[in-house]
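Dear V.,

Thank you for sending over the compound details. I've combined the ligand you provided, adenosine-5'-triphosphate, with the protein sequence from our construct and run the structure prediction for the complex. I'm sharing the raw inputs here so there's no ambiguity about protonation or stereochemistry in the SMILES, which I know was a concern on your side last time.
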Amino acid sequence: MTASDTDPLVRVRGLNVTFAQKRLLGPTRSVRAVHDIDFDIGRGETLGLVGESGSGKSTTGRALLRLVPVESGSVQLAGQELTKLRGGELRKLRAAMQMVFQDPYSSLDPSTTVGASITEPFRVHQGLSRNQAWPRVLELLELVGLPASHANRYPYEFSGGQRQRIAIARALALHPKLIVCDEAVSALDVSTQNQVINLLEELRAEFELSYLFIAHDLAVVRHIAHRVAVMYLGRLVEVGPAERVYERPAHPYTEALLSAIPVPNPQRAGERERIVLHGDLPDPADPPAGCPFQNRCGYAMDICRESMPPMTEVADGGTVACHLQTTGPRLAGAVLRDANLSVGSGQ
Ligand SMILES: Nc1ncnc2c1ncn2[C@@H]1O[C@H](COP(=O)(O)OP(=O)(O)OP(=O)(O)O)[C@@H](O)[C@H]1O
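Below is the predicted structure of the protein with adenosine-5'-triphosphate bound, written out as structure tokens.
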């Protein structure tokens, strides 16, 4: 099957990932980390994937790259089904899809110069010697804003932001189509975060890259995502154009995540009520009945405890899995609060 330029680069349908978790006490249990999710990523598009720790974001990113076993569902890259690939075909795929992690220390060998680390993809995938790959390494370092002369330095000689640039340089080596950035800027201070995000943005525009940009914090994603997908307990609960999601969240969980972002303009500070989510994310091995968010949702109705809401279209863009969309008032911030539904508000 071939894909036209207008088809999405990535097409995920009905993706499920289940882990067997061994426990010290008690039998091994089965945890569905990703539950029947669908999404697309366009060519040159950045999809932000947000949600609390444990919601299944990293597992989703890893499943795209086949770094965790896919239980069922379809993942296509440019029209090619990836879930059935083996051996050499899988290695080719790994060149087209790369991952940048939160902690580049884990991906950069501390005892190897960064230049030598960046030669690795050329050696493994293209059979080049270190000398043959070296000119490309120098180009890549300059592309990510580092002097080529730093190629002979070791990871510990760089700051966190510089190490992340090196990880990005290595990810770019084989001209990928998609980069999964898994909390790639989360450990950096805000100004370094902005610099790395600006770099990612420049590279996206120059090479028509697509990103799955994973972060637990909606504030980080705001500056880079064209669309945002919100994940809760292994499920996507809302997907939509970034502007709409930030201005008019359609899911109470998205609204709560947004309410935790400080409002930069003090004159607007009173406009957004802080919504405190009580309790932790439920145990994914023992999810609540009905909607997975119902036991923490200030708007929960009887139906929410009984049945899983289907994904439905939001009038001004995207989709949401929430009974409010079909039953009762739709969530549109102030509208719901005016309707005097209970919102757990904090300080
Ligand atoms: N290799 C694994 N073996 C067993 N369980 C796993 C494994 N990886 C993830 N899980 C479980 O899957 C669920 C989702 O984890 P995942 O890391 O994908 O979430 P996340 O949203 O990325 O959170 P975080 O930001 O903390 O990484 C969690 O319950 C986690 O314990």
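A first observation: The pocket of adenosine-5'-triphosphate is lined by residues 19, 21, 31, 33, 51, 53-59, 216, 284 (CB under 6 Å).

Warm regards,
I. M.
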